[in-house]
Design goal:
Layout lengths: L1 H20 L1 H13 L1 H35 L4 H13 L58
């Protein structure tokens, strides 16, 4: 492979030097490429778009097959841990959330305490997480009389 790379590099350098010093070769390449530049651009753009689509579809299909295989594990030792991991993964129907499903707390379930931390009289470590007190709602906006 190294020999092949060296030969290709030599031929590339030779072709570049020939192009820079031969006016007839410059005219030929400029007319060949310049006449069909938009066609080449469209073909390259279409190839990139189709390649990306095929890649995304293939990855999605492989993920779906892997998830199906994981959901139908027959070993009883693995079934519990696989179900636990799968329950934490987002599904295609859910919105993406940066926090996992098991750690979200609904607003109605949250408990609010006073802004002053409680006095710790025991030997336990103090709780580093302080809850934020609820805030009062903003008053309705009143337009000035005109």
């Amino acid at each position: 492979m190294l020999l092949e790379a060296a030969v290709l590099a030599f031929l590339g350098i030779w072709l570049t030097n020939e192009y820079m010093n031969n006016i007839y070769m410059q005219l030929y390449w400029n007319s060949l490429i310049g006449a069909h530049l938009t066609t080449y651009t469209m073909i390259i753009g279409l190839a990139i778009g189709l390649g990306g689509t095929v890649t995304a579809f293939t990855l999605w299909k492989n993920l779906r097959e892997a998830r199906y295989k994981l959901e139908h594990v027959t070993s009883p030792r693995l079934r519990g841990s696989v179900k636990q991991v799968l329950s934490m993964l987002p599904t295609m129907d859910e919105e993406y959330s940066p926090t996992p499903k098991h750690s979200t707390v609904k607003h109605s379930q949250a408990t609010f305490t006073s802004s002053t931390p409680p006095q710790n009289t025991s030997q336990e470590e103090p709780n580093p997480i302080q809850t934020i007190p609820p805030t009062a709602p903003l008053p309705d906006r009143q337009d000035p009389p005109s």
